[in-house]
Request: fold
Amino acid sequence: MQYLPQATHSEDRGRTITMNLTRRELLSKTTKWILLTGAAATAWDYVLAGKADASPNYDMTKHWWAMVIDVDKCIGCGNCVRACEAENDVPEGFFRTWVERYHIEDWQSDHPDVDSSNGGHDGFAEKYKSGKNFFVPKLCNHCADSPCVQVCPVGATFRTPDGVVLVDEKYCLGCRYCIQACPYGCRFLNPKKNTADKCTLCYHRITQGLTTACCEACPTQARVLADLKNPKDPVHEFLRTHNVQVLKPQMATGAKVFYKNLDGSVR
Reply:
């Protein structure tokens, strides 16, 4: 049996990262890193010191993190799943993020075939000779009105001032209330820690001016991290000019993972 997604605890915010490279060497080796605009990017000196949270230029209240996913660009390669696993030490058989393949024949548009072998970790083998195929990446929606936050009896699940839903492992009882409450199936019980686990939106990275591991690894830029409080973020123009949906809008959770051209058959 496979389980869907994991998270880091609140101590990640202050975690010190040891760096042995010089500033010049680091800059030359990070051409793949996608640096964010705004306050997080201007805190670069603090980033290099591994103390982004100490930077006067990074204020959690000035950010509101989200993600935009362009379904048309996703090729189902599994890079995002593997990158997430490597970055966050996700236990085998569990997923913080995963990819689903939808197959629709003309006569079954309301009832597609859906598969996600090993969470899309290894991509998808050819299976269909006709009809329409498309891929839908999924992860925690970091809801503004998160059911998981509301049901946690000890406050171990919480939302940060910059809009990221996290789990504090020190307080988590492993009661599974939040797992049952999540309407998106984004949580699981970590078998090693016996605590609730999920996507953290790579909080340890985005507070240091970097994008998430999954966004960095995507070869088609189907996934893009967005800061809804940054007026210069391209996400605002994107949301205005494209047909964008969220998963299960009827749940009114304030989901912050936005999908472009999401097929109505996706559930």
Q: What stands out?
A: The longest strand covers residues 98-104. The chain has one domain: 10-260. Residues 1-40 have pLDDT under 50 and may be disordered.
